[in-house]
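User: Could you go from structure to sequence for me? I need the amino acid at each position, not a summary. Structure tokens:
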């Protein structure tokens, strides 16, 4: 397997095959190493922790990220959020996928994180939208082409504004509700089911400082909004591109949510939220194919290549095909949600459940991204023929900075 691994200078190793990357994700001896540049917003957050601290925080937050709660969010909250976000653009008969996707994903993520805001309040939505985009720029600083210190200063200013306008009022409200539960004035089930409430109730148990709780909420907002919005844009773009060659499938996507989910899974495979994941070896590690990772080496997990591994996804692995079939045990979205202890806690919320015709309708989860894409397509959304989409010039990742659409 040596030919599938490119050794780099300065004690670095790059893993590119499906089996290598999956095994590396699952190794407890490989520590997260991709967010040191973005520490201003990522330090001590769930994604950046390792070992016991990570297990304890993950175990606590997993109480929220259960299938029945995902189902509640998808069926009771997401629809209203999409309607409030999308309808103004449909009435104007035009919009931008980058704006629509980010606002919709942000509003849902704010509810999950525990930040009180009204998606119908345009000014409030625009303010939070700008703040969270700046958080995302800070978290992905490793891939930024801008001056990094300048970006960090902008992120700090955004965090200060977020604390004053959104976080502090939301925290104070939850502190009061927790006090009322402790005093027996209200029941446990009446507390909000969100990350902030969960962290505040358990801060002593985990030794969480106010600063760490604040950054965790910033992390949840940017991670949920950023990755969901980009997955939404890629999904719609891929469906429209496929529809140029297969018009009947575009019509199907406008009508059939389950088909949109298949399209979304294929888009996630080809366009993972992060093209790479970085790890640092805490000890010598020997992979099952014989590859040796020495202690201290920086390991790059190449998700783009792993998700296009010919041995796993076939001869057409580099091509978009919503009808692709994969063998049992292989997620249709590849390794885009990671694997092991650092697998994305919101994978089922964003991507839904694996397609299974035998699953009862009451247990089906289509996923936030598919539902957002289907809502836009069923409203008649298509590319603006006079304004082509543009990629973000300030990022090495494949992000769209603007994607005009008309209805």
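Assistant: Here is the amino acid at each position, in order:
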């Amino acid at each position: 397997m040596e030919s599938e691994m490119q050794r780099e200078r300065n004690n670095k190793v790059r893993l590119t095959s499906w089996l290598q990357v999956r095994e590396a994700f699952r190794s407890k001896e490989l520590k997260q190493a991709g967010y040191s540049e973005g520490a201003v917003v990522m330090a001590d957050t769930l994604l950046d922790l390792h070992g016991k601290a990570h297990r304890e925080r993950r175990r606590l937050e997993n109480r929220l990220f259960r299938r029945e709660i995902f189902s509640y969010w998808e069926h009771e909250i997401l629809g209203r959020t999409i309607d409030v976000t999308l309808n103004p653009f449909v009435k104007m008969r035009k919009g931008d996928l980058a704006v629509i996707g980010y606002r919709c994903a942000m509003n849902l993520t704010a509810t999950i994180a525990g930040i009180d805001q009204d998606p119908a309040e345009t000014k409030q939505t625009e303010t939070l939208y700008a703040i969270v985009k700046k958080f995302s720029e800070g978290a992905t600083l490793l891939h930024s082409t801008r001056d990094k210190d300048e970006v960090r200063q902008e992120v700090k200013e955004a965090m200060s504004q977020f604390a004053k306008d959104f976080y502090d009022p939301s925290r104070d409200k939850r502190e009061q509700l927790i006090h009322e539960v402790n005093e027996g004035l209200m029941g446990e089930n009446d507390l909000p089911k969100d990350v902030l409430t969960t962290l505040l109730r358990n801060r002593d148990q985990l030794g969480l400082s106010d600063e760490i709780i604040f950054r965790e909420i910033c992390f949840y907002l940017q991670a949920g909004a950023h990755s969901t919005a980009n997955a939404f844009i890629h999904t719609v773009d891929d469906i429209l591109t496929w529809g140029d060659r297969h018009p009947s499938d575009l019509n199907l996507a406008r009508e059939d949510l389950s088909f949109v989910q298949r399209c979304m899974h294929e888009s996630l495979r080809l366009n993972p939220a992060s093209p790479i994941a970085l790890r640092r070896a805490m000890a010598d590690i020997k992979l099952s194919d014989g590859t040796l990772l020495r202690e201290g080496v920086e390991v790059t997990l190449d998700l783009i290549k792993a998700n296009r591994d010919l041995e796993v996804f076939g001869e057409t692995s580099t091509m978009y095909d919503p009808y692709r079939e994969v063998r049992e045990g292989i997620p249709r979205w590849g390794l885009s949600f990671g694997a092991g202890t650092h697998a994305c806690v919101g994978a089922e919320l964003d991507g839904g459940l694996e397609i299974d015709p035998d699953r009862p309708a009451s247990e089906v989860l289509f996923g936030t991204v598919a539902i957002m894409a289907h809502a836009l397509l069923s409203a008649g959304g298509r590319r603006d023929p006079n304004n082509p989409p543009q990629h973000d010039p300030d990022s090495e990742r494949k992000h769209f900075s603007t994607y005009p659409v008309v209805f």
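One structural detail worth keeping in mind: The chain is about 55% helix and 10% strand.
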